[in-house]
Amino acid sequence: MSERIVETSEGRRLSVRELDPADMLDLIEAAGSAIAKDSAHAWLSYAQMICSVTAIDNVPVQMPATKGEIRDLARRLGTDGVNALVADAEAGTSHEVETSVAKN
């Protein structure tokens, strides 16, 4: 699995990876009633971007399991972090960082 690093204007380093299909199912489940509204697509897109963060300044971030946890992660990222994620998505360019998974 590969991750990329997104640096915020305040100098924080966000490790980001694309969500896999199982992650997306978890996100949809966590969304609950949010996906029944007219704004479901926008909410899911925004939540997907937030949930793609796997670490903040090398401190691991667990995949949120509820809307409240997604909101809490968004607050941890703050406007600076979300702006950096949006800019990264719009640019479509990042430094790829290969992560290694220990083999058993």
Would you spell out the secondary-structure blueprint of this structure?
Layout: E1 2-7, E2 13-16, H1 21-31, H2 40-51, E3 53-56, E4 59-60, H3 67-91, E5 95-98
Antiparallel strand pairs: 1-2, 1-5, 2-3, 3-4
Structure explained in plain terms:
The chain has 104 residues and is α+β, with helices and mostly antiparallel strands. The chain has a single domain, classed as 2-Layer Sandwich (rbstp2171). The chain is 46% helix and 19% strand. The chain contains 3 helices and 5 strands, in the order ββααββαβ. It has a 5-stranded antiparallel beta sheet. Helix 1 packs across helix 2. The longest helix is centred in the last third of the chain and has 25 residues. It is globular, with a radius of gyration of 14 Å.
